[in-house]
Amino acid sequence: MLTVDGRQGPYLPGLNLRDLADAMIELGAHNALNRDGGGSSTMLAREPGTTGLKVVNTPSDGGERPIPNGLALYAPQGSGRLVGFNVDTHDKRVFPGMTRRMTVRGYDETFGPATNNEHVTRATGGWAIGDTFHAAPQPGPASFTAFRGSTAKTEKLTVLGKLSRIAPASSRISLGMNEQKPLQINGFDARSFSAKIERADLDLSYDRQIVEVTADLQIRALRPGATTIKAGAQGKETQVAVTVGVQDEPIATFENDVPQWTFGSARATGSVSAELNGHTATGLKPSYDFTRSTGTRTAYAVPPKPLQVNGQPLSLAAWVHGSGKGEWTAFTVKDASGQSRSLYGPYITRNGWKQLEVAVPPELKFPVEVTRFTAIETKADRSYQGEVIVDDITARVPPPVALPPAPELRDDVIGQASGWKFAVMSDARFVARNPDSDLVRSARRTLREIKASGAEFVVINGDLVDEASPEDLKLARRVLTEELGDFPWYCVPGNHEIMGPGTIDNFRREFGATHRTFDHKGTRFVLLDSSTETLRGGGFEQMEMLRNALRTAEGQAVVMMHHPRRDPSPARTSQLADRMEAACFERLLSERDKPTAFTGGHVGGFFASTVDGVPHVVNGNSGKAPAEQGGFTGWTLVGVTKNNIKAEIRPHVDSLHVQAPANLRFGSPEKVAATLKQGARTLPVKYPMSAVWAGSPGLHVGDSSGVRPWHVAWLDPVAGLLTAIRPGQITISVTVNGVTRSTGVRVSPV
């Protein structure tokens, strides 16, 4: 029996009958009967040793569809005599000195529950006490075995490295009355391999009048209010904000101010007007013409003044009357720091009224205000005129709670490039109709800096152009040829390489293959096409290419595509669209037993993290303005050695300045810092920017272990502190992206 998930997105369409026939032939079938398709495709099964059923596929409706018939296979009544064990756990990784709860179910010849489930357990790499595995103090492979007589089953486990930090799966959890939700605390070792932490290994403190946490880590609501769960494990700590109860607060009812709302658009025209037949009374009707372009078109309604939202909202909601044309929806909000973000909602796929809801990330700086409501069409082959009616915009607001601060993590992959080097740039986003724009000049500047950097080639990792017209792509080739000459380069498509035409054809005509592999000095490079915000959209053959390239590479592998698997920014909208596909991709990288790294773009900022031992580097914008306040433009120089990479983040530098005291006294370390300018932006030189601090012979730069008697002063570049050692004169210098500035400091006698 085979169940195939139905259509779940533009590039997850399920299988047609011919595809299904091919799949059945591959499975060895001579005859096959197709029962049904689409959202009705559901398979339920029971695990050995159980009687309950659970859904084992992913129905395209998001859950089980009520249908009147199905095909059921029943096993006969079993004898209840033990023939085997099913040994399972919710996480096969565990930290040294911690525990993992195991589930052991005996089953009979029909896989039904054994009448007698008595068993004994043993373990390697730790100890078995009942159905709990206790990990040894050292990392390595482990196993847990359940047996009775000659019947046994072993589950393989892994003891990770020493616990380095802990973090919740969600930093904010909201409960309704009489509701419960899971609390998941994850641990990470030094290489960012992760595992869930059991309740027995956690120290928890919280207001027990508001919630209770059960032995299986379920948070159960007791009464309305808020509390912070403080969790600790092996000396590491983290926090989770928990609220009970919620109120829907109206923020726009359109009773009196519809004439003051205004219309805006990109690649579209339209208007806003009052609709007397709203959801409750008068509503707002944006009308738009999406026939004027094949690029992404937006139509948005702007309130006369921003809509203020109190508290720390969980979500924004609106009643929307649509005609099923498939428009994508979004609210734009501005947080307390002045940062604007688009919060994307569902597609309008049905006729009539439906309430849409959009989650508000807890990482935003509250309070927030709503500045527009937007309808979006991204598909080039969809051309239409449309309208929606919007009414009763509300915010779902829980009781106030102190939200945990986001931890400031620094990843070791950021550092000075060593070994042989290659460069990465992305997101210039220029168009041919303005060939001398600041965006083109920034792209040219980036290419010149790369050519002079010592890199052996450059990968343009998506969104070099904005609209992907033939003229845009010809200008892109001209810029590359004029600035790089015979310097090697590779071009990876991003979503803006299909923005206008909606297909990759223009890119392919100008630049050839959209995905490829090549080897350079023993390192395998895999360049992928994520222009549709998925990997499947680039063709199944590139998934096969990725698997084969990772399997056959003898040494290190570097995988590159425009979209990262995870968006590190609060809105989390700039990432692979299909989260199942993203998890599969991440698993492919982490399961490889040789050094592997990933580089992406698209987010609009420079970030780095390590996931299950795989460094992930996100290159920021090389032309377009940065997405985040305090962000910068630039590129990345990557150094490659035998077993790892180092990403040297190189911002564009218009000018560079060093701030240090002219006179330094004993006993009072003083701050040393640097700032750079990019046009009108003045930015501190700090992580993740790469900077080299140096100075005259009398200055020690580094940690305190390198201080010697002849040193005049010691500079700790991480803390930014300068400490006097003995009287004298020193010079401090900093170099950022090839630009160096210096200043003198005198250490005065006591």
From TrEMBL:
Residue stretches making up the Calcineurin-like phosphoesterase domain: 442-602
Chain ranges of the Phosphodiester glycosidase domain: 1-73
Pfam families: Metallophos, NAGPA
Sequence intervals crossing the membrane: none
UniProt-annotated stretches for the region Disordered: 45-64
InterPro entries registered for this protein in UniProt: Calcineurin-like_PHP (IPR004843), Metallo-depent_PP-like (IPR029052), NAGPA (IPR018711), STPP_CPPED1 (IPR051918)
Protein name: Calcineurin-like phosphoesterase family protein
